[in-house]
Amino acid sequence: MGWQIVVVGDLSTNHAEWHSVVSDSLHYLSPTDQDKLFPEFSKIIGYKNYARKNIGYLYAAMNGATQIFDTDDDTFIRKESLVYFKDFNNCDFFDVNGEDFFNPYLYFAEGSDIWPRGYPLRFVSSDKRKLRQGQTISKSNSRINFDVLQTLVNSEPDVDAIYRMTVTDNIKDFEVSSSILKINKPIFVPGNTQSTLWINSKKFRFLYVPRWVSFRFCDILKMYIAQRYSELAYAGFWTDQIRNPHDYMVDFESEIECYLQTEPAIKYLKSTSESNLAKIYKDLFELRICKELEAEAAGMFENLMKELI
User: Fold this and answer.
1) Residue 37 falls inside a structural domain
2) 271 lies in which domain range?
């Protein structure tokens, strides 16, 4: 079948407009469609929230997807990166080793002083322009295996509101990079749902976007959980974003959980061997990182995904 586009609508989506462009390769899921496909899960996560994306992941798996490119309606693949998307053998591979947190902009946008949303703020000042103590980047002599490829986004990279309001909102264009960095444990690095290629269907259950944390924290938390139980790699500026309008103070308010809860979440993930999503979110609830209902919804998603793949 090749690549298919799945668009997940919400209550305010222009359903008629999307239905008018549906084709063999573009699928639009209206709220009615979603309620019919996955009635219990659709009901528990409700509408008017980013977690509706979870329905799209389930639909893709139900229709035989072996890879999923997770992105948003304002992000587009750059022509120059197609050669790398099509065949990773065209890329150069590097290992990132060490501990703590890694800032991928130190490699892909050297000297830019950019940090990604979800990077612990306590490290931003001390980590500008250099790797954290003990971290190394070394070229690999062969292709490196990984489960998930997170790519940086050009034009409107995924930085937090503090960066945009205190440093600059005018982020320059960056060239597509041929490099892929494998993030080796126990290093953690922020990821998101902006431009992420999942190439191992056995890891699809970790696609779950938490429903009861803030909008600007939900995908950060999702990706920290995912990389605890899968192999994550990073590529540089393979996509462009023409960003939807944002109020940076609204973003800041939504990111407060991100600033405060990232490190406690990582501390928990480093300490646990638990890989069941429902139990993970139950533990996170007990740590006051998410709401209690998250465990039920995550468990439902995980069970559905296991049935579908």
Assistant:
1) no
2) 71-295
Cα–Cα distance between 98 and 134 in angstroms, integer? Answer: 5
Residue 104 falls inside a structural domain: yes
Contact between 103 and 236 (Cβ < 8 Å):
no
In a domain, 60, yes or no: no
Handedness of CA 240, 242, 247, 250 (dihedral sign): negative
Residues ≥6 apart with Cβ < 8 Å to 91: 84, 143, 178, 179, 180, 235
Q: b/e map of 98-135 (b: 16 or more CB within 10 Å)?
A: bebbbbbbbbbbeebebbbbbbbeeebeebeeebbeeb
Domain-embedded: residue 202: yes
Q: What pTM was computed for the model?
A: 0.95
Q: Is the dihedral of CA 68, 177, 105, 137 positive or negative?
A: positive
9: nearest Cα among 26, 70, 18: 18
Residues 189-238 pLDDT 10s: 999 999 999 999 999 999 999 999 999 999 999 999 999 999 999 999 99
Are 175 and 237 in contact, with CB atoms under 8 Å apart? yes
Which residue type sits at 152? L
Q: How many domains does the chain have?
A: 1
d(CA 271, CA 197): 27
Dihedral of the alpha carbons of 125, 128, 132, 135, in degrees to the nearest 10: 170
